[in-house]
Design goal:
With 172 residues, the chain is mostly helical. 75% of the residues lie in helices and 0% in strands. It has seven helices and no strands. α1 packs across α5.
Length: 172
């Protein structure tokens, strides 16, 4: 395997392993990744211009790299915060096994969103690989299937209510 393919596989597999080992609810991490994508789309321009307004001495190439760095931070900040706050929120082997599907979705969506923001040399090598072309061709399926799986997992994890107990009343 070529180094770009290995790097891409690592970008996809690392979140899956992390989420499973730390027992983090992957569906919430997926939603955090989606939030990060929205932040990049709507906030990166303002954040980058604020940064470049205060750093007029930077050459254009550094300003472009700074823009990608700002986008990467905006993308990953909600994810990192969710990782921190959601450690050990998946209990039981059945739920952990169920968590594997959204974990794979996080890894794949994460790769789709992160790779274009990587430093130019690394990003270019990955984007030029045949595996990346396959990933890009199936990105609609990756995103929609991952979203549906995450929603189903979240819906399945909702707390069970007894239905016959009144709120606020305790058994004596």
């Amino acid at each position: 395997m070529t180094p770009p393919v290995i790097t891409l596989i690592a970008i996809v597999v690392a979140p899956v392993v992390l989420l499973m080992l730390l027992r983090i609810n992957a569906a919430l991490v997926f939603l955090s990744l989606c939030l990060g994508s929205v932040l990049v789309q709507f906030g990166a321009g303002d954040a980058s211009s604020l940064l470049t307004d205060h750093a007029d001495q930077l050459p254009q190439q550094a300003a472009n790299a700074g823009s990608d760095t700002v986008k990467l931070v905006l993308l990953l900040l909600p994810v990192v915060l969710t990782l921190i706050f959601m450690i050990r929120t998946v209990s039981g082997s059945g739920r952990l096994l169920l968590n594997a599907l959204p974990s794979i979705g996080v890894g794949m969506l994460g790769a789709l969103l992160v790779v274009p923001l990587l430093p130019p040399g690394l990003s270019h090598n990955i984007v030029d690989s045949s595996l990346w072309e396959q990933v890009k061709r199936t990105q609609d399926i990756i995103v929609s299937a991952s979203a549906v799986v995450c929603l189903l997992v979240l819906w399945m994890q909702r707390p069970k209510t007894g239905g016959h107990h009144r709120l606020g009343k305790h058994k004596g």
